[in-house]
Amino acid sequence: MTLVEDITHRPGYRAQNPFCTLVIGTCGRSQELLECLHSIPNHERRNYRVIIVDQNDAPFLAAMLEPLAQKIDLTHLRVPFRNACRARNAGAQLTSTPWLAFPDDDCRFLPDTLTIARQRIAHDDLDLLTGQLVDEDEHPHIMSWPPAECPVDPESFERCFAESTFFLRKSVFDSVSGFDPNFGPGTRFPSAEGAEMLCRIWRKSPPLRGLYTPTIRFFHPNKDSGISAEIHSRIEKFAFGEGAFTIRHFPILPLKRIAHRLAKSAVGVVVGGGLPRRRRLAYVRGFFLGALAYLILPLQSRTTPAQPKSYAR
Known about the structure:
By secondary structure, the chain is of the alpha/beta class. It has helices spanning 31-38, 61-65, 84-92, 113-123, 157-160, 170-175, 193-204, 229-249, 255-271, 274-296, 299-303; strands spanning 4-5, 20-26, 48-54, 73-78, 99-101, 108-109, 128-134, 150-151, 166-169, 210-219.
């Protein structure tokens, strides 16, 4: 398989002085990816590079992306594996911009997302800037995002940080060798990869100057609503990764908050009923199974990435 297809080698658009690279790993999605790219406002395209890390078996994305190479500073990297964090790390190695971001391939930027991020980074002394996820009506969703700005630190990150909503100095990213490819989609522990990297940053080079602001917003579809078995399976998989992550980094995590959340879910399993009970049961079961797997499995067994047909989450 060809490892690199940089379609901007053909006559195309080049950003003059991009300050940030958007690294987007993709597998199993095409229309969503195009919508994400088209949501980059024209007036911000000179400020950002885009690297698409393509993990699809077939090379169909090249033809779809080629027209956008006339409008966006776009690199198309094909890789022979399916692992979201390996893909992000591979993309990050191709750029030298001072900042990095890793939007999901089914996210979309609101009209002011990238402008506000650029302005805050230019004027604030930060290493990390993060925003929130919103639904089609631009209402915060998926998690309970703080309504006001706050620092991003070990006590607060659970409420104000997601893999697809942050901007990070590349020097900080490189200092910890980026994401751990043993966490995230395409691995045994299919979540918590962003938090896992943050904890390594905090443990290696504190203090990290991190800020959350609700003014930076990314659209992301909510796939965890409803009552289907698929949704309960997704909740359990996310909790599985969270349990492993918690065991790995428990010395710096807010353990009282984690214990309170688990206790509340466990009580809900015992005394609750219907949909809430099933969702809580999926979370509790996944969390403890993930924690146990991380504790007892040999390192090679628990860190060998799976190779699913699609890791879409």
